[in-house]
Design goal:
The structure is a single chain. By secondary structure, the chain is α/β, with parallel strands linked by helices. Strand 6, helix 6 and strand 7 form a beta-alpha-beta unit. The radius of gyration is 18 Å and the shape is globular.
């Protein structure tokens, strides 16, 4: 097992006095794909926001990449640039596909000459090289999500956070996007945290799977063991497809 890229200790997140996430301990390892599963409102997306430093926890500590605990203090720009998120809705700019993919490089002050080959290579990886000059407004849902993935991967992140990246997509695009995620993990060593309601997707992609319920981490284990030999009856009920509250 590789070293943890995240270590979470006694983490709590509350809004208006209501606790929505409370995790005593969790380690996320460099180079792994970790799936976060659980019913809606379990705290999965909240955890992603904390991992991407979009929010500061109410209490507890998040250690990132062997650095100091991020407990109430803003992480460095260098740390923030190692992590990127792709959401369920791509939210592309009203520009060309190529300009969308290049946007993060532009923010990092990459010259156009330096950015162009990176954009071309990344669009090739996601199967959209022929659409580089097309308007993002003309894309299908699956194409738009692949552009969002390309925009995330072109900056060569250490961590890719995915919030339901294939929800409402057809099986063809689901397969393509899962292939892109798998290649990023295997070939570039990108650590992936994947929020998904699709247990079959978790089985296909994840090295480990974690079950969140009512803001608490119920169980985390290697994916085959998680689904075939769960240790908690609530995990077993979820894995069977029963309704869990």
């Amino acid at each position: 097992m590789s070293d943890p890229i995240y270590r979470i200790k006694n983490l709590t997140q509350a809004y208006n006095g209501r606790t929505v996430l409370k995790i005593d301990s969790l380690e996320i390892y460099a180079g792994e794909i970790l799936a976060l599963v659980g019913p809606s409102g379990a705290g999965k997306s909240t955890l992603l926001r904390l991992l991407n430093f979009l929010e500061q926890p109410t209490a507890g500590k998040v250690f990132f990449a062997g650095g100091a605990a991020l407990n109430g203090s803003a992480p460095s720009l260098e740390a923030r640039r190692k992590v990127t998120t792709v959401f369920q809705q791509p939210a592309l700019l009203n520009r060309s596909v190529g300009e969308n993919v290049a946007f993060g490089l532009k923010l990092r002050q990459k010259s156009k000459r330096a950015a162009e080959p990176l954009v071309a290579q990344t669009l090739e990886r996601v199967g959209l090289a022929n659409l580089a000059k097309s308007s993002a407004r003309t894309l299908s849902g699956g194409e738009a999500q692949r552009v969002a993935l390309a925009r995330a991967l072109v900056i060569q992140p250490s961590v890719l956070l995915l919030d339901e990246p294939t929800a409402n997509l057809d099986p063809y695009n689901v397969k393509l996007i899962e292939k892109i995620i798998r290649q990023a993990n295997q070939e570039q060593g990108v650590s992936v945290v994947l929020v998904t309601h699709n247990v079959f997707q978790a089985k296909r992609l994840a090295h480990r799977t974690a079950f969140l319920l009512d803001g608490k981490l119920i169980e985390v284990s290697d994916t085959p063991a998680f689904f075939n030999n769960p240790q908690d009856p609530r995990t077993a009920a979820f894995a069977r497809g029963d309704m869990v509250y």
